[in-house]
Write a structure and sequence with these properties.
Elements: H1 2-5, H2 8-11, E1 20-21, E2 27-30, E3 33-37, H3 50-63, H4 79-91, E4 96-100, H5 103-114, E5 120-124, H6 129-136, E6 141-145, H7 150-167, E7 171-176, H8 188-193, E8 201-205, H9 220-224, E9 232-236, E10 246-250, H10 252-259, H11 263-266, H12 273-288, H13 291-309, E11 322-327, H14 330-342, E12 346-347, E13 349-351, E14 360-365, H15 373-391, H16 394-401
Helix pairs in contact: 3-12, 4-12, 5-6, 13-15, 14-16
Length: 402
């Protein structure tokens, strides 16, 4: 069953594969009770917004879920697909963009298409699973640098350049804009500065930054002011856009190359029209209704400052992703999960070993524009009490009684 599935009988339905029911919002139903939910990447609160639901419903009524039928290269192209790509490219400051049916699959295929056996990939050690899986398809070399360690990145670039000087290949550096577990940012400015010394293309996975970071929400590279130096910008619709799909944006000739070489798109049915029109609506709201992003950051700032004032460790986050790190065992993590859900009616993601190092419990909060300051204050009080229980060995005593 593997490390995640070996306890399936005991965990399924509660710790694994839990079911949240009701309208997507700050509060939803879990096991028949209303809970305050901090585990949905609905950053801008668009998932259940009336304008979004109407756009989705109108598109489904007009086109159904099948149109256009077939892969885009063969029979699945439409003016709306092209319009969405043009608007996405303009929003993130690129010449062109290409739609992807899924974010995860899209990143895998982008990496697979961009490199061959002569090329070298250099990547951050905390890269998302989709990046890791994409690199597994690469027949050439890949070098990893410790998370955000720019000195070591330069060491790996020297190794990569020496190798590609011999093979005639190129170098692809991959980082994330916002790291989805810790909330810290990729050091885009420092990475871009290395282009003065080393020839490489930079691919940024900005799944958590698109829509949330930067003056207009155009992403983490906009936040750092390095859009022109990021060669390939990847965004997903599954976070701020509260939908399905994604896109890759960059220089027109590179995007054209990907259009004709990404197997996951060439051999896959086109993104259904309701998802395309729904994405156009969401993108328009991100551009023209900054109040959603402003509300998100008001909640983020209140939550993160309040947690720190309460003596809780939230690491180095500079994004909406808010980790709360505690010292404890896997068993204590299960007791905390149960306590939060059953006694405090708080539902959040809780991560323990082997995802994080032994002895660490990470409570991951995702603030959204639909949360309230009352939600924030209640959660800070609850987390402070949970930490006190953990420090006083209450949870370990409960484990001993089981």
């Amino acid at each position: 069953m593997g490390p995640l599935g070996q306890y399936a009988d005991q965990t399924e339905g509660y710790f694994m594969f839990p079911k949240l029911e009701g309208d997507i919002s700050n509060k939803m139903i879990f096991r028949g009770k209303e809970r305050l939910v901090w585990s949905l990447n609905n950053y801008l609160g668009l998932a259940n917004h009336p304008e979004v639901r109407k756009a989705d419903a109108d598109a489904a009524a007009r086109f159904g879920m099948a149109y256009p039928m077939g892969a885009r290269m063969m029979s699945g192209q439409s003016n709306y697909h092209e319009q969405l790509e043009q608007e996405l490219a303009a929003f993130v400051g690129r010449e062109a963009a290409y739609l992807l049916n899924y974010g995860y699959q899209g990143m895998v295929s982008v990496i697979n298409s961009m490199v061959d056996r002569k090329d070298v990939i250099v990547y951050d050690s905390e890269a998302h699973a989709c990046i890791i899986d994409g690199m597994r398809l690469h027949f050439g070399k890949r070098f990893v640098y410790p998370h955000n360690n720019i000195e070591n990145l330069e060491i790996q670039l020297r190794r990569a350049k020496k190798m590609t000087d011999e093979t005639g290949g190129g170098i692809l550096v991959i980082t994330e804009g916002v790291y989805g577990m810790s909330g810290d940012l990729g050091k885009l400015k420092e990475i871009v500065a290395l282009k003065e010394k080393y020839p490489f293309r930079l691919l940024v996975d900005d799944a958590h930054g698109f829509g949330t970071m930067g003056p207009t929400g155009a992403g983490t590279d906009e936040y750092f002011g390095v859009q022109k130096d990021v060669d390939l910008y990847f965004g997903t619709f599954a976070k701020s856009m509260a939908g399905i799909g994604g896109f890759i944006a960059g220089e027109k000739k590179v995007i054209k190359y990907l259009m004709y070489n990404m197997r996951s798109q060439i051999f896959a049915k086109s993104l259904p029209m309701p998802m395309v029109l729904g994405a156009l609506k969401r993108l328009d709201m991100i551009r023209t209704q900054p109040e959603h992003r402003i509300k998100l950051w008001n909640i983020v700032n209140a939550l993160q400052s309040g947690l720190k004032e309460a003596g809780l460790d939230i690491g180095n986050t500079e994004s909406p992703v808010t980790p709360v790190m505690l010292n404890g065992t896997v068993g204590e993590a299960t007791q905390i999960t149960y306590d939060l859900r059953e006694n405090y009616n708080i539902f959040c993601s809780i991560v323990s070993y082997p995802v994080v190092p032994k002895g660490i419990i990470l409570l991951r909060l995702i603030p959204t524009a639909v949360h309230t300051l009352e939600d924030v204050n209640y959660t800070i009080k609850a987390f402070k009490e949970v930490k006190e229980k953990l420090d006083n060995k209450i949870y370990s005593e409960q484990m001993a009684e089981i």
